[in-house]
Amino acid sequence: MKRNKWFRAGWTALCMACLMSACGGKEEKKVSLGNSKGLPGELLLIVDPSLWKTDARDSLEGVFKGSVPALPQHEPMFRMMRIFPENYSAKFSTLRNIVEVREDPKVENVEMGVAYNVKAAPQVYVSIKAHDAAALNCFLSEYRERLTGYFVEGELRWEGALLKKKYSAMVDKASREIFGWSVKTPSGIRSMKRAEDFLWASTDLPDQDMNYVCYALPLADSARMLTERWVELRDSVMKRNIPGAKPENWMTTTYENGQPLVVQRRVVLPDGREAYEMRGLWEMRRGALGGPFVSLAFPDPEHGRLLVAEGFIYSPKSKKRDLVRRMEAALRTLAPVR
Q1: Looking at 24-33, 145-154, 264-273, which range is the least confident one?
Q2: Would you state the pLDDT for residue 31?
Q3: Mean pLDDT score across all residues of the chain
Q4: In which order are the strands placed within the sheet that holds 110-116?
Q5: pLDDT score for 244
Q6: CA dist., res. 76 & res. 80, Å (int)
Q7: In sequence order, which residues have a C-beta less than 8 Å from that of residue 272 and are 6 or more positions away?
Q8: Domains of the chain
C-alpha cells in the first residue's frame, strides 16, 4: 500500500494537500511489498551536491543528528547515512527511512512530499524540493519537529508491530487482571511486582535494563496532568512502590535548580486516542542509579480513572535512544480489553 502527502511551505504557513489516500479492501490485496531494511533509528539522506556544499549541510545535520529530547547525554535523532542522487540505487530503495533533498529553481520556496510504503513496508519516504539553500534553511528551522516526527512515528509503529508479534505474556496477563487493559511489553521481561492498582515489570539486567510501570490515578487529576502536579503524583507512586537498597533510597524524578527535568504535552496517537505525555529523567534518591523515562496517561472515564503507563531505562554503559523508543512503543499498545 502506498500513501502520499504533498504540501508547499511558505514562511508563515504550511498548506497540505493529499494527492493519494490510503487504499482499502480489495485494492490493498493487489499490492505486495517486501520487508524494509535498516537498523533502529537509521535514516538515508539523498541530497544534491549543490546543497550539501552550502550551509544547508549544517542545517540538515542539525535536524537529523540533533539531540533526542530528555536523555541524560547527547544521542542523535537518527543514525544518518548520506549519498548523492547519482549513487542512489535499488539496494537503497527498501530502507525504512529515506529523505531526498533536491535543489529546484522552479520551486517558489520549498515543497515537501511524504510517501509511505513506496518500495517496501514499513517505509517512510520524504521528498523535499527547495528553490535554494536559503529557502531550505528557513524551512528546516521552522518545520524540523514536523519533519523528524514523520520518521520517529514510523520507528514507533515498526517497534509496535514487532512487539505485537513477540511480547511478554506474563505482563499482559497481569495487566488484564489488575487493570482490565492489555499491553505488549518486550518479551525479555523476567521479574514483576504487583500491588493495588500498580504493576512493575523489568528485564532485570545490569545494563540495557527496560522497565514497565502502570498505575491508576483519579480521573479528577486530568486537569492537572500537564503541570508539576503530575510529577508530584509520579514521585509519590514510585516512592511507595520502587524503593532502593536503603531506607533513604527510592525512585524520584530528577530535579535541577528546584525544577523537574521533564517535558509534557498532549498527544493524539495514530489510533485516534488522546493521551498526556511526559518524558524526562529519573534517579534513585541518594543513590547512583538513573536514566530516562517516558509516560503516557490515558483517561478511562468508564472507571473514573487515569491509567498511567511508563517505561524507564537503566543503561549506564550504552546508548538509550532505541531502548526508550521500544518502551514508548510498548506504552502505546496499552488498551482496554473488550
Answers
A1: 24-33
A2: 60
A3: 91
A4: 14-20, 3-9, 110-116, 124-130, 97-103, 42-47, 79-83
A5: 81
A6: 9
A7: none
A8: 3-164 (no CATH), 167-336 (3.40.1000.10)
